[in-house]
Amino acid sequence: MRLAGIIGHPVAHSLSPAFQAAAFAACGLDAAYERWDTTAEALAGRVVSLRDPRYLGANVTIPHKEAVIPLLDELGGQSARVGAVNTIVNRDGRLYGFNTDGPGFAAALRNESYFDPAGKRFLLLGAGGAARGIAFALAEAKAATIAIANRTPERAARLAREVAETGAGAQAVSYADPVAGYDCVVNCTSVGMHGTAGEGDLPCDPAAMSPGTLAVDIVYTPEDTPFLRAARTAGCRTLGGLPMLIYQGGLSFELWTGVHAPIEVMFDAARKAIAARDLA
Ligand code: ATR
């Protein structure tokens, strides 16, 4: 049996074990997916252990997505630019790092909202790790404009500068600037997340967005956030955060196994795990 797992601290609430295990089973793969709660002190040892042939690789989550980079042999995709790795692949004892968060976001847009980022005008709210992955993926997908607003403006300015260096049309904007005139507005902050101080708050005023704008939230607890509800009321189309989570996991699964990810199976397993958690 081969093994994969999630490296983070904490990992008790991660949905990845539920939907990755379901994907292995649905594809008839003799593989298991474990929770590897790992402190900063234990990170290097954990990563070294992945070189063993038993291991397919791992997912990496908070707080280790940046710290894991120097422990790997090679970085693939845009992970070096993003400065964060969420997927480690063990190929014959060599460890390759990837970041599937941004590509998972783009896949969710295309497959769940039938929205091709090419030529579209985006407004990203937030400039943290999630926004970085999304911004570079949108640049790669040839978005026309990537405007970035952040509570701490310096972070938005830095990200916009880095994305513009790839040749994309990126610029920092202010939260006070208009939110109209975009094809897609993405909440890349934790505002609206269940169990946080901002759980009832909105990252911007959806009533001020152009009708027909696609409003996307990366928050997936709750699945229907205040931002998504208000955006629908304002006549916008919406996409929640669960599809991004599933598609980033699907891309990790494909990197480990070379097998096409069973996306519907993964959605079902994640929704069942969320429902079980809500009942607990
Ligand atoms: P992640 O990896 O999930 O993106 P992060 O790197 O900590 O996490 O980034 C969190 C993002 O949410 C940041 O853009 C943060 O803004 P700051 O850079 O100003 O900290 C944003 N954020 C968090 N709480 C917020 C709030 N209450 N209002 C506005 N933005 C908030």
Note down, in words, how this protein is organized:
With 280 residues, this protein is α/β, with parallel strands linked by helices. It folds into two domains: 2-99 and 245-279, Leucine Dehydrogenase, chain A, domain 1 (Rossmann fold), CATH 3.40.50.10860; 102-240, NAD(P)-binding Rossmann-like Domain (Rossmann fold, 3-Layer(aba) Sandwich), CATH 3.40.50. It is 36% helix and 20% strand. It has helices at residues 16-26, 43-49, 79-82, 101-113, 129-140, 153-164, 226-233, 242-257, 263-279; strands spanning 2-8, 31-37, 55-60, 74-75, 87-91, 94-98, 121-125, 145-149, 170-173, 184-187, 214-217, 237-239. The strands form two sheets. It has a six-stranded mixed beta sheet with strand order 2-1-3-5-6-4, sandwiched between helices. Helix 6 links the parallel strand 8 and strand 9. Helix 1 packs antiparallel against helix 9 (263-279) and helix 8 packs across helix 9. The longest helix is centred in the last third of the chain and has 17 residues, at 263-279. 2'-monophosphoadenosine-5'-diphosphate (ATR) is lined by residues 126-131, 150-152, 155, 189-191, 198.
